[in-house]
Amino acid sequence: VSMDETDSPQTPPELMVILAALADQKIRLQTIAPKFTGRFNKGVDYVGDVDQFDREFNEDLAVIAEAIRQYGLPSNLKLSVHSGSDKFSIYPVIRQAILNKNIGIHLKTAGTTWLEELIGLSEAGGDGLELAKEIYAYSLGHIDELCAPYASVIDIDPAALPSVDEVNGWDGATLAATLRHIPNDPQFNANVRQLLHVAFKVAAKAGQRYLDLLKENEQIVGEQVTQNLFDRHMKPLFIG
User: Fold this and answer.
1) What is the spatial distance between Cα 204 and Cα 119, in angstroms, rounded to a whole number?
2) What pLDDT does 175 receive?
3) What is the spatial distance between Cα 196 and Cα 190, in angstroms, rounded to a whole number?
4) Are residues 236 and 92 in contact, defined by beta-carbon separation less than 8 angstroms?
5) 14, 19, 96, 101: most buried by Cβ count inside 10 Å?
6) Which residues of the chain have pLDDT under 70?
7) How far apart (Å, rounded) are the C-alpha atoms in residues 22 and 25?
8) Closest C-alpha among 64, 68, 67 to residue 98
9) Measured between alpha carbons, how far is 192 from 118 in angstroms, rounded to an integer?
10) How many CB atoms neighbour CB 8 within 10 A?
11) 151/177 Cα distance (integer angstroms)
């Protein structure tokens, strides 16, 4: 159950009432995703007060534990962080909280994998790079349509988006570096990354062409996906 795209965060008492109602309806919850204070924009780092997030996160963990005891919810019910990929600045406090309480969490990361596929195709060059540039061109031309459903979880400055002509002049390494979430890389552009994060349907329109290019470039795409999920997500959260 997710409530992360509401206008305001749920307070701990509100979360408890919601969990009680779900238990009353005999819904066998596996994850619950509240809205936290701060911005959880798609594909980029957390924007907000990390100390306040830390307090809220720990309070929500306590509420879930109490709801499991009081209302008989499943013992494996996990707190879920939606749009949780790439939120590097809050991973240390999440790791400390789950270590202290010896529990697991659910982190939703689906969109970041699509971006790594696009980075891999860019790095591959040739037809992969050509398709990546086409996807950017279409996305820029349809920015309002693509962004409208995600207005509450993106923050894009149109003036910071490079023109289609500029991107068409880039090599694969430049486009990949623009997309890859390495915050201290001067080439990284959070605006481009957010736009393409919500442009996954453009790849779907490419259909078999996109899938064939992923297969042809499986090794380099796989390397990008693995490095991103393991090195930038799983290690800081669960290994340290």
Assistant:
1) 16
2) 99
3) 10
4) yes
5) 19
6) none
7) 5
8) 64
9) 12
10) 8
11) 25
